[in-house]
Every structure is written in structure tokens, then in C-alpha cells.
Amino acid sequence: MQQKTLNIVVIVSVAYVAAQMLADIASLRIVMIAGFSVDAGTLVYPFTFTLRDLVHKTTNKQTARTLILAAAVINIFMALLFWVASLLPADMGVGPQLAFGAVLAPVWRIVFASISAEIISEFIDSEVYERWVERFRQKYQWGRVLASNAVAVPIDSLVFCAIAFFGALPFAIVASIFWANVIIKGLTTLLSIPLIYAVPEVEQVKLDD
């Protein structure tokens, strides 16, 4: 792999993991946007689909899926770290520091919902992306993003809402969160399409190149 391409892969991979972490933290808060109830992670999470596509394009499906699993493990570790930190006694010389636990102590149902939705939807995204590339090769690259996201986004939103909120919130609010997620992620998909042309395509990547 050429150094320039390797640098791109590193940067995009770091951005992907960072976006996953930020989305999982922000998902702990439900906000109102244009009259819809929305988990705040939706403000950043949609970009992970296109970032995953960029890794897929510059490497291959196996590398992209490894990145998905690595991000899931990192997010689990992050939640565990926040949980442990919230349980440890505070240094009262500084103060009770109650805000940390109130904000960052994980809601395990939401953590499980986020990570489950991420793995399922992004694996599906990678499969649809791969099928599109096999069919069209380097043509219609915009279609890779649209096709893969069109399938993965509703599945992601459905899995997340079902696990995180079903039975805990009124159905109307859960439905509002679902549709808001789909709409916002769909709009983000349209905005992110030009990014697919920003990185080179590599048919096969050998780690020892």
C-alpha cells in the first residue's frame, strides 16, 4: 500500500472510531429537533456509514468489518471505564462531582442497543456496498453510498429504538425517535456522497506491501 493511501486509511479509521464514540456518548440524551424526539447521537452517527465506505473503498470488506468490531470493543471499554469512574469515591477536596455520574455513567440498555445496532447495520452496509462494487466496479460510486445506506440506516434505527426504548418510553416517542433517526441519517447520506470521491480505490490490499 502506498504511503499516501495508508495515511488516508489511518485518518478515516480514526475518524470512524471517534464518531462512533461520540455518538454513543451523545445517545444518552434525548433532544427535540423540529418537533421530533431524537437521541443526540444521531447528530454525528450518520457519518460513520460513509466513513466505513471510505475504509472499504481504500482497503476491502474484511478490513472494514474488522474496524466495525474494533470500534464496538472500544465503545464497550469506554462504557466500562465511565461506569467504574462513576462508582469510585470522589475526592471531596475537589467536591462531590455528581455531574460526572449523572451524565456519563452508562445506561447499559442504551449501550447494548447502540453497539448491537452499529454492528448489525454496518455489517449489512458493507455487504450491500460490496455487491454494488461487484456489479458496477468503479462506475456510479455515488450509488454505493446511497444503496448501502438506504438499507443499513432503517435497520440501524429500528434495532436501536427497539432495544433501547421499547417498553421504556411511550410508543409515540419511540416512533418519533425512529423516524427522526431515519430522516436525519438520510439527509446526512446525501450530504456525505461527495466524500466517496475523495479517496483512491484499491482493489486488493496486501498488508506486507
Question: Can you describe this structure?
Answer:
- The protein has 209 residues and is mostly helical.
- The protein has one domain.
- It is 70% helix and 4% strand.
- The protein has 7 helices and 2 strands.
- It has helices at residues 3-26, 47-58, 61-87, 98-104, 108-136, 141-165, 171-192; strands spanning 30-33, 36-39.
- A two-stranded antiparallel ribbon has the order 1-2.
- A hairpin with a 2-residue loop joins strand 1 and strand 2 (36-39).
- Helix 2 (47-58) packs across helix 5, helix 5 runs antiparallel to helix 6 and helix 6 (141-165) packs antiparallel against helix 7 (171-192).
- The longest helix is centred in the middle third of the chain and has 29 residues, at 108-136.
- The N and C termini lie close together (5 Å).
- Residues 204-209 have low confidence and may be disordered.
Count of alpha and pi helical runs: 7
Percentage of residues in DSSP E strands: under 5%
Mean pLDDT value: 86
What's the number of extended β-strand segments? 2
Strand order of the largest sheet: 1-2
Helix content: 55-70%
> In angstroms, what separates the terminal alpha carbons?
5 Å
Principal-axis shape: globular
Number of folding domains? 1
Q: Using only CA atoms, what is the Rg?
A: 18 Å
Question: Biggest β-sheet, characterized?
Answer: 2 strands, antiparallel
Q: What class would the helix/strand composition place it in?
A: mainly alpha
Ranges where pLDDT stays below 50 over 5 or more residues in a row are 204-209
Secondary-structure element order, as H and E? HEEHHHHHH
